[in-house]
Amino acid sequence: MSKSNQSSNSKSATKVQYVCSQCGASSAKWAGQCSDCLAWNSFTEMAMFSTGKVSARLKGYAGADTPTIIALQDVTTNHETRWTTGLEELDRVLGGGVVEGSVVLIGGDPGIGKSTLLLQTAANLSNEFNTLYVTGEESLKQVSLRAQRLGVEKSKIKLLAETQVEKILMLAEADGPKILIIDSIQTLYTEVIQSAPGSVSQVRESAAYLVRFAKRTGTSIFIVGHVTKDGSLAGPRVLEHMVDAVLYFEGEKDSRFRVVRAFKNRFGAVNELGLFAMTDKGLKAVNNPSAIFLSRDKVIVPGSNVLVSWEGNRPLLIEVQALVDETPLANPRRVTVGFENNRLGMLLAVLHRHAGISIHSLDVFINVVGGVRITETGIDLAVLFAMVSSLRNKPLSQELVVFGEIGLGGEIRPVQGGQERIREAQKHGFKTAIVPKANMPKKGAIPDIEVIGVNSLQEALTYL
Ligand code: TYD
Ligand code: MG
Q: Which of 12, 17, 160, 429 is the most exposed place for a label (fewest CB within 10 A)?
């Protein structure tokens, strides 16, 4: 590269932009709070490269021959090849196994089980494929100790402790793994960028190298990304658009159960859930998920209510709790765990307007038991029942389940998978279900459970 060329590059590289380390939103000016994801103090400076420099850097990685325009009909597709990970619940979230040449991002809080899950997956896959586990966070010894704990120390996994992307990919190129695991993206760096590992530009650029490598060689890559609350590391969200699938770990660290949710999946359904329990020998699939989220005491307290939720492609029985109480504060609290706060505001408004029950001046706490997060609308009716039960201090029947969406007019709207939900409840011994009228099964279709269809909030509340 000639001298003049270099100086013109560095000149254009001085142009800066500010990028949110949580969600990747960019802005020309620095701001204290990101207007997209509302994270505080998350903007960091990032140098923008001229396109000339980018294309120079991509050489050898883009793998692009001379581009040509082609008719859609003429594109030949071989059916996507999928491999099972040996963990049924993970396969489910991935849409039926790992796709050849796909890049999967696995995000979650530190210590939630990402490395454990991937080491188990790697062990299973290494029986059949050349599998390379790159550790940037832990030493080879630590990984080997974990492998012993998981009982997979005899597997054929290959290990590499390295954090420079160029070196990793050079070695991978020579070794030719079919499965490549990167733990974690925040420890990686590329030498073409000056900033520290974990910064937005390093994370993005390193991931871009990995994605190009995957597409060019057909290697399937799993990338671990830590979610950090304080923005000191760039979050996995800055990568979401680059990869094929994004899976997030949910769940409380102190609870045994872990939920892996597909947040984006180019090869399968989103919102699919995988359920695991963390044991002393790693993550184990949970076979009867409903039983776990329902581990209720024999004594039923007011404000507790069971709902049949629809997660991914299966029904799940989940307990919702509400506590409605007088507040010592001028502004009553609205706290929700596992449930969207805005939706609670809406439910309170509907409850007041269409049922004449006012909770405006009281504290309201909503908790979805078991550390699951519910994003579907079928939970509305269950939350309302729990709140009213707590307000009146009257427990609901232990044998009752409810589900249904509530509209702004106080109407109860049907939800997806009505019949399957009722069947799941019946299977677990529930005797009564209150459901949207449009979700009513045909008479006698589901035995041993009394199904009550309701059209409006007022009608539903008469059964309380
Ligand atoms: P880890 O996979 O290291 O988390 P991450 O990579 O997401 O940071 O999980 C670490 C936690 O899991 C740690 O607190 C110990 C626990 N653990 C078990 O309970 N059983 C096991 O068999 C293993 C390997 C870890
Ligand atoms: Mg780890």
A: 429
Which protein residue's CA is at the shortest distance from atom 20 of ligand 1? 280
| CA-proximal residue: ligand 1, atom 8 (nearest) | 111
* pLDDT range class, residue 233, cuts 50, 70, 90: low
Token code pair at residue 343: 């939706």
Give the closest residue (by CA) to ligand 1 atom 12.
113
Q: What is the mean pLDDT of the chain?
A: 86
Residue-wise pLDDT tens digits, 298-318: 667 888 888 888 877 788 889
Contacts of 214 (CB under 8 A, 6+ apart): 101, 102, 103, 180, 220, 221
**Nearest ligand (C-alpha, residue 283):** 1
The fold of 292-461 is: Ribosomal Protein S5; domain 2 (3.30.230)
Q: Which of 116, 228, 250 to mutate to test the pocket of ligand 1 (most atoms within 8 A of CB)?
A: 116
> Is residue 121 classed as helix, strand or coil in its secondary structure?
helix
Pairing of strands 26-27, 16-20: antiparallel
From 293, 305, 301, select the one nearest 385 (Cα to Cα).
Answer: 305
* pTM (two decimals): 0.76
Domain 82-287 of CATH type 3.30.70.20 = no
**Domain coordinates of the chain in residue numbers?**
12-57, 82-287, 292-461
Among candidate residues 67, 152, 154, 166, the one with its CA nearest the CA of residue 118: 152
